[in-house]
Design goal:
2 strands; mainly alpha; 4 helices
Amino acid sequence: MSKFLTEFKEFAMRGNVMDMAVGVIIGGAFGKIVTSLVNDVIMPLVGLVVGGVDFTNLKWVFAEATEETPEAALMYGQFIQNVVDFLIIAFCIFLMVKAIARLTKKKEEAPAPAPAPEPSAEEKLLTEIRDLLKDKK
């Protein structure tokens, strides 16, 4: 059992797993922000433009509710709202990936450090003298 726990600990502490965990947490929070943006800002404006329609209430009713059965309806308004959610999230991720690729490209294109300057004639001569003195000892 301890070998299993050790393997699990090694797996959980790898860089990729930790990065993925951070990504999932940030993604969840980002999803809430985008959902609020769509529900509270974009869709009311779209509804206003198309005549005051609230997209979340759009539905096609197959069977009305009775005392014994609930309403059977196709909630296509909610689907439209979820598609808009998805498109905004996909666009934001596209922009982030593009920005990261641009930053990575700039890092790769950074010039190599300049080579050390050539030693002067005096320094070369002193180095030769030092080497000769070492050989005589």
